[in-house]
Automatic annotation (TrEMBL):
Molecular function terms, GO-annotated: chromate transmembrane transporter activity
Subcellular location: Cell membrane
InterPro entries: CHR_Transporter, Chromate_transpt
Organism: Butyrivibrio hungatei
Record's bilayer topology term: Multi-pass membrane protein
Family listed: Belongs to the chromate ion transporter (CHR) (TC 2.A.51) family.
Protein name, per record: Chromate transporter
Pfam families membership: Chromate_transp
Gene Ontology annotations for the cellular component aspect, listed alphabetically: plasma membrane
Transmembrane regions listed in the UniProt entry: 7-29, 74-98, 110-128, 148-175
Length: 181
């Protein structure tokens, strides 16, 4: 029960102090679950992000569910998921009541601009951390460049890009395995 409560509180802290969605939460999730709590290994965080991105739903919720399950089974998955969602739910509930009254104030508009800039920095940090952990070979660079072009410039659905990347990675693995024989 102690581990369940610890999961809930850890992910509540992550959910409460991260603005900008799942990608902005990745560095905090990594710091908490890998470095501070040592629940998972450094190499596992990239796999958690890949799985969380590949499954339906928000990345932070999927990552919390995965980590919670890995640490304490089904109850841990529930605790981590509720923990990461609860602060956002509470904040949105409160903001929805007061935002209409204050949205025309310049100070509020500047605050939201500042938050956007901070979120961008967190997303870039998450990108840098994932890049450091990714394999660096010709296949990885081809997948990375092609995915970026397809999603950013050709507006191909991200879901199609993820599925195509998974298939390309699987085919590459099978071809390399056959060559090794």
């Amino acid at each position: 029960m102690k581990k369940i409560l610890e999961l809930f509180l850890t992910f509540m802290k992550i959910g409460g102090f991260t603005f900008g969605g799942g990608y902005a939460m990745i560095p905090l999730i990594q710091r908490e679950v890998v470095h501070n709590k040592k629940w998972i290994k450094e190499g596992d965080i990239l796999e958690i992000v890949a799985i969380a991105e590949s499954t339906p739903g928000p990345i932070a919720i999927n990552a919390a569910t995965f980590v919670g399950y890995k640490v304490a089974g089904f109850a841990g998955a529930i605790a981590a998921t509720v923990g990461v969602v609860f602060p956002s739910f509470l904040i949105i509930l409160i903001i929805s009541y007061v935002l209409k009254e204050f949205e025309s104030f310049k100070g509020v508009q500047y605050a939201f601009n500042g938050i956007r800039a901070g979120v961008l920095a967190l997303i870039i940090k998450a990108l840098f951390n994932m890049y450091k952990q990714c394999p660096k070979n010709l296949y990885a660079y081809i997948i990375m460049g092609t995915s970026f072009i397809l999603a950013a410039f050709l507006h191909v659905s991200v879901l199609i890009v993820i599925i195509a990347c998974a298939l390309f990675g699987l085919v590459t693995y099978l071809v390399d395995k056959r060559r090794a024989k």
